[in-house]
Amino acid sequence: xxxxKMRPNLLSLPRLSVLLALLLAALIATSPGSAEAKSSRKxxxxxxxxxxxxxxxxxxxxxxxxxxxxxxxxYILFEVHDDGKIYAGSVEVIRRxxxxxxxxxxxxxxxxxxxSYMEIPILDRLMAKLRKELGHPKRPQPxxxxxxxxxxxxxxxxxxx
Length: 161
Hints:
Strands 1-5-4-3-2 form a five-stranded antiparallel beta sheet, with helices on one face. By secondary structure, the protein is an alpha+beta fold. Strand 3 (75-82) and strand 4 form a beta hairpin. It contains four helices and five strands, in the order αβαββββαα. It has helices spanning 13-30, 47-61, 116-134, 154-160; strands spanning 39-43, 65-70, 75-82, 85-97, 103-111. The chain has a domain at 33-134: 2-Layer Sandwich (Alpha-D-Glucose-1,6-Bisphosphate, Chain A, domain 4).
């Protein structure tokens, strides 16, 4: 009698379905779905100087259609045309303070359903425009010395030695 070797069925139907379900779940969890990126930059200039420069940049330099803007709340809505489609974009201009407690602005740009690699170059060009129009921010003032504090008196330190 001839015996045929039987291979063990490592991928039986129940195991195969579990494996496929896990693979599908992993693909769904790691797929980008819709791109909801937000890109931001911070600049140490006043809101009052950054706001109009940002509006001019979007409308004139980038040639984008601005659909709505509100300087009181600090947002601009615009349209981006790419590959025959129109995408909604927004810029938030948020009042902040920088590391030296000077007036600063955070610019948050988002283009709906587009990845961040489309937003970052726009922000980079905006930052270049702000540097060109507004210059580099002034250096922060050094902290004022308290004249009553003996640690700050160099004469007192020299006399004690």
